[in-house]
TrEMBL record:
One Pfam family matching this protein: Resolvase
Domain of life, per lineage: Bacteria
Chain ranges of the Recombinase domain: 161-273
Gene3D superfamilies (alphabetical): Putative Large Serine Recombinase, Chain B, Domain 2, Resolvase, N-terminal catalytic domain
GO MF term (any one): DNA strand exchange activity
Transmembrane segments: none
Protein name: Recombinase family protein
Domain Resolvase/invertase-type recombinase catalytic: 8-153
Organism: Glutamicibacter ectropisis
Amino acid sequence: MNPKARPRAILYLRQSVAREESISLELQEDAGRRYAAQAGYDVVAVEADHGISGRTWKRPAVLRVMKMIEDQHADVIILWKWSRLSRARLDWAVAIDKVEAAGGRIESATEQVDVSTSTGRFARGMLAEFAAFESERIGDTWKEAHRRRVEQGIPATGKKRYGYEYDRATGFTPHPVEGPILQECYRKYITGTSFYEITDYLNAGPTKPGEGYTGPKPGIWSATTVRRVMDNPFASGHFISKGEVHQGIHDPLIDEETWEQYQVRRKSRRVSRSSTKSTYPYTGLIFCELCGHGMYAGLFGSGHTLKYRCSGAAQWKLHSGGYVMSSTIEATLLPWLTDLAAEINEATKDRKAPKPHDPTPSLRRALIKVESRLSALTEKLVDGTVPQEVYERMRDQWLGEKKSLEDQLMAARVEARVEPVKLPPDLMEQWGEMPAAVKRELLSRVVARIVVKPGRPRAEVRIVARWEQSTLSDGGSN
């Protein structure tokens, strides 16, 4: 720098995210300019980070300021207070080292110390240490505030939740427009509509995704965003904090039964997501009798005929056969449904429709046994009879088994609450006009699976009803 030239100064401003010390950027800039004028500096730039915590160094403006000093485009960094640069001890030390190595200086407009002396550098260090202390104190205060909110059934933050509006005084309340739409999304999914179809419904509807819910294009829903919104238990009156689900005090949009139905459907359809968006109604229901693998739809052969092909035969060459025509399936399925319609509809009047075997008692016994094993394992760890490594391995195994049993119990509760389906007497006439999603939903209520034995001249088709499912093995691919 030319010794006759006035030192070039950059004003660095940062507005804290802590409300009690959120000093405006305008006040900080005014104090910095007055200090520069008194010191005889020329202000060549003003850089500001708005609403960014001083505990992180990944701030665009502070990185630009450091680069200007290192590139010799400025000589002095002026801060409102020392805490504006950083509240982290390591970042402070690195910043001071880089600036001084480049021949620059850092000064404070309101906390002036002479850093050319050892006493001044000690004072600056104390002020930086106090800034770090204040940061930790604020962090502890926020953690305690968040903990209290969670204990009171309130989410830690008031960030946007689709379906709700937020007010600091009243908390989360159902949104008059978004709330009913989110309710309809759950109803649609439970009755067989795919996430892709729900996404189209939302994008064509009266509401678009708000802040934090934008898809790949601004203002447009994506299937991924829809899944994220619906997988969040907030609409059921719960919220997630640190990975755990807590009961909230806000009004739910859907009842517990609807939420459990959604979870059960979500798990069963996650196994083969293609079946939920497939235009073919039997995808996910057809299994090969020869190998137990699922059969997938496609237009096969020279005539591009709709057929279902065995994945075991196609991918793993488990047997030579592997096709069944869609018309062959319907030739067996539709008369079966028609013959069953009158019997089922009559039985539902007296609530005597056949239902699957109730697995609840056996599942509860298995769950009690797993919980007892976990308790005994913990006692052995405390007694020192089981090494930590063995304990963690067995604990994780049994926790996984416990989660599986809990999921099965929830599925059994949902199944027990489902009303028996009523098949229309003119099913044969309506079938061709029904959307694939409606057909899948109807079949899921009465058909466990469609078993096909590929062969010539025609494949053999057998329908397994849901109330016969308990006699089946769990084999086969999904």
